[in-house]
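Example complex used in Figure S2.
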Amino acid sequence: MSTLTKVLIVLLTVFSIFLCGIVVTYVANAENQRGRADTLKRDLDSAEQLQKNAERELSDEKGKFEVAGRELEAKMKKLQKDLSTLEGNLDAITRENAQLVQQITAMGASVEQANALQASQMQQAQAAQQDVVALQADQTRLDTELKETNQLLIEKMAVVAQLEAKNKQLIEANQELESRLNQYLRPSGRAAVTPQPVTAAPAVVQPAAPSTAKDIGLNGRVTDVDMRNALAEISIGAAAGVKPDMKFHVTRGQQFVCDILILDVDADKAVGVLDLVQSTPQAGDVCATNL
Amino acid sequence: MSPMPQSRGKGSVPSNLYTAILAVALGVVLATSVFVAVQCFTQYKTIFGMP
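Predicted assembly (342 residues):
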């Protein structure tokens, strides 16, 4: 056996051992590609299944999304309709508010006017009260003067009575003298002439004609009664001639009910306080100034 | 390797030694082949074909 053959045998052996070691090491440490492939295939199948499920869920979700979109569109249409209705209502309320503000302004002006009128009436009432006080003072003064005049008149009447008695005595004396003179002159066929007095006879004071009262003759009906405040309203006013402090007699048939002393007069109605109440007055009772 | 016996000099190695070395190499290769075949059959259920 040649040396070369021996060397080749040794090298072949060495490399065979080396190569086998490498192969064994590699095969022993190699990964199981089949198992890995199976695992990957299972993973792939699982992933495909998941993809199908995801696509199906996606399609379902798309369907739900479309349904929800249609529902939302319907709701939006309904809400827009409601919004337009509410806007209309808001416009109407705004217009009504403006009208109410105008009415409030007008009412404020009316209240101010009424307050001014009330103040004016209060001033007029105070002036009228002052006039009443002045008239009462005048009445008191006139009453005093009337009493003094009456006293003086009584005294004058007494003097007149004395003078009349004296005049009567003088007339009787004159008649007696005239009858005596006629007895002396009758035989001679003459009679005494009634002497004409030098002094003209004064005009005789004629008494004034007695004052006659005329019935007012207002007739109306009771329209409202407030027994708590003892007030009543009648159906005639200043247009018919009713004035404050007039007294109306209320009757029901032939029965006297009460009197109404007028306090306030309007154009077509008047209000007064009840007086001499015999029975409760009612709306519809007849009221008149003269029974 | 010649079939003829050769004279062995001082310090020469007999031919049987190389035969044993070859046997060892063959055994190693054979064992490696068996191991690889077993591993292939175990993992891929086949030896020569594609799994």
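DSSP finds one helix and no strands in chain B. Confidence is low (pLDDT under 50) at residues 1-5 of chain B.
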